[in-house]
């Protein structure tokens, strides 16, 4: 026979009620918080996994914010460049209009006035700021306007050549800015012509036009040279005897004489070399010209040069008229190159947006999967928890009632 003391009865009853009450309180906490793991002691293994999953969710949310920021920045740049293309197109239309032979001096002045307005608009677009107030085309110099007028009133690039990038996933970065120098300044220029028509090294006219050499139509030079297009080509008129003159074109990098079509090339007749169609007129032995075929031009400089020509060239002489025609042709080529440069950048921006979109979709799917796994480990099943709460309440009530009955089992109750 086992004897149980009153102290044992009270200690055991109280301990049991405390255990049942503790489970009841834990279930109540789970229902109130919606989480079945509220502290590591509830489930150490699950708590460790939940901690890692929380860190993963935070990482994904950070990258999603970066992707959203990159998307907004690139879309703003894309919209800005679209406005720039529209302005350049209007400048091109005015340039074509200026090339009409029926325009008077006043007509050219009117075109020049509108070109000045368009130039100012283009500068404002190039100095666009983002939501934080930084200039989007200034590279790393976000607080400095991308373009400003110098002491001579010409628009000059003020930023650097930095490009900002943003990480949108582990090891995945995307550029979110482009410097204005690459978009508006370093644009392929029309083939320039310098040199002499008398063999003395003098006689270069304004606007890059040289009497005696007429550039008909420049073509794409990339396929004509390998591995890189030279900066210049040299065109010479040489006496081959018997009163005959031929033309040779040299690549100054190697000293190689390039083949002309037809061969030999002669003054006064059109010939093609390295993708360029040319005609040399009024030639004399010793004439030599340099073609700048890899020059760069600023879109701002092109418009400024066009404005200056409209206001200064009077077309009173055949030479000045030829200079004016050369200016119009050169301006149109440069404006087309400027538009192409911006459109190529827009294409590049489209590729970046596609990359951001695909990465954002991946992050969204990863976030949903991670949250689902975390929910399975962490979130409470309310139906199960409420059922447990009801059962634990019943058990606690039964324990309390039984303890009240057992606690009265004493010899003193029989006296």
From TrEMBL:
Record's protein name: Flagellar hook-associated protein FlgL
Residue ranges of domain Flagellin N-terminal in the record: 15-140
Entry keywords, A to Z: Bacterial flagellum, Cell projection, Cilium, Coiled coil, Flagellum, Secreted
Subcellular location: Bacterial flagellum; Secreted
Species lineage: Bacteria, Pseudomonadati, Pseudomonadota, Gammaproteobacteria, Pseudomonadales
Coiled coil (residue ranges): 53-80
This protein's record includes keyword Secreted: yes
Residue intervals of the Flagellin C-terminal domain: 340-409
Record flagged with keyword Heme: no
Main location: other
Cross-referenced NCBIfam families: flagell_flgL
Organism listed in the record: Marinobacter shengliensis
Protein family (similarity comment): Belongs to the bacterial flagellin family.
InterPro entries the UniProt entry points to: Flagell_FlgL, Flagellin, Flagellin_C, Flagellin_N
